[in-house]
Amino acid sequence: MNVIGYLAGTRPEWKTQSAIVSAHYDHLGRGWPDVHKGDEGRVHPGADDNASGVAVLLELARAFAASEKPQRSLVFIAFAGEEAGLAGSRYFVQHASPFPLEGVWGVINLDTVGRLGTQPISILGTGTATEWQHIFRGAGFVTGIEGRNIAEALQSSDQVPFVERGVPAVQIFTGAHGDYHRPTDTADKIDAAGLVKIATYVREGVAYLTERPERLTVTIASVPAASLSAAPAQPAAGQAPGRRVSFGTVPDFAFQGPGVRADGVVDGSPAQKAGIQAGDVILKIDDKAVANLQEFSNLLRALQPGQTVTVLLRRGDQERTLKVTLAER
Questions:
Q1: Which residues have a Cβ under 8 Å from the Cβ of 184 and sit 6 or more positions away?
Q2: Rounded to two decimals, what is the model's pTM?
Q3: What's the Rg (C-alpha) of the chain?
Q4: Domains observed in the chain
Q5: Spatial distance between the Cα atoms of 179 and 157, rounded to a whole number of angstroms
Q6: Which letter does DSSP use for residue 278 in this model?
Q7: What are the residues whose beta carbons fall under 8 Å from the beta carbon of 202, sequence distance 6 or more?
Q8: What is the pLDDT of residue 154?
Q9: Using CA of residue 302, residue 112, residue 207, residue 75, what is the dihedral sign?
């Protein structure tokens, strides 16, 4: 069940318009639907994914409710079913209430924001509207908090159904790590001071959406202008559970390609055993080119545990070929 609250806008002529802040509140329970081998039946706390996003959403709701009311209505949504193929957000875009989907100026989705540390905040999907990069660059100027705009994004969180319907949407993110979808994603690893920074930074972007007179300039590829009234797209590859293999690299989401850069390597994983190192850029799996992170994910979904693949990678200015034997996920 989605949980929705809103602050009504003060401008009567904008009464059907809204900006959305979202975060998913579901996780894996004791492992379903994406349990790793050996973790079956164990509690998966989901502190970073996505109690962290819900915490920031609640703080933003509190802060906006305590201040001057927004000119454009501001909707806060805690989505259910994200881990089961974006079920809650897909339902919402088909039954948007209390404000129509065609009146949504933009969506800022908070997912996995609990491990900021000293790195910049990542904003995934800024390529969905021309203004996003300027909005978050401005947020950095005002707050002194560093962010990095990443035009592309994995098709993997609740902003996706909005983008499929032509609504500009981004995901706030602090990076992948080895505890993703594991029982070790615990509260003691959350950067509380980082959550404060994220709430401060995102508040600037949200406020802008509630005040901007004109729509954002949509730059979503392959989405026609009339798509707001069209039927929703089917779930994108990579959405629903189904990948059976473990590879073991932690991706660098800011890397623009071609290829996929390993920001880290999980201890004991097939990647580490094969000799893959942080900083390596994966260019091919067998004879198939890896254009970007989404293509890498799609290729892994077609492979089987125990299968050995040939990985072409670039390390520094040299290319290397390694054999990786995939494990069961």
A1: 178
A2: 0.83
A3: 20
A4: 3-229 (3.40.630.10), 245-328 (2.30.42.10)
A5: 18
A6: T
A7: 21, 56, 60, 108, 110, 139, 172
A8: 65
A9: positive
Residues 137-149: tens digit of each pLDDT: 999 999 999 999 9
Q: Locate 31 and state its tokens.
A: 């492992």
CA 249 to chain centre: 18
The DSSP bridge pattern shows strands 245-246 and 327-328 to be antiparallel
**Tokens 């890896």 found at:** 290
pLDDT for residue 243: 61
Q: How far apart are CA 307 and CA 247, in angstroms?
A: 11
Measured distance CA(136)–CA(127) in Å, rounded:
13
Q: Where are the beta strands (DSSP E) in the chain?
A: 3-7, 18-24, 73-79, 104-110, 121-124, 147-150, 169-173, 245-246, 249-251, 260-265, 281-285, 288-289, 308-315, 318-325, 327-328
What values do phi and psi take at 116, rounded to 5? -70, -50
List C-alpha distances in Å: 84 to 46, 89, 218, 323: 14, 11, 28, 32
Mean pLDDT for the stretch of residues 266-276: 91
Helix segments in the chain, DSSP class H: 52-66, 87-94, 132-143, 160-164, 192-211, 270-274, 293-301
Is the distance from CB of 271 to CB of 248 less than 8 angstroms? yes
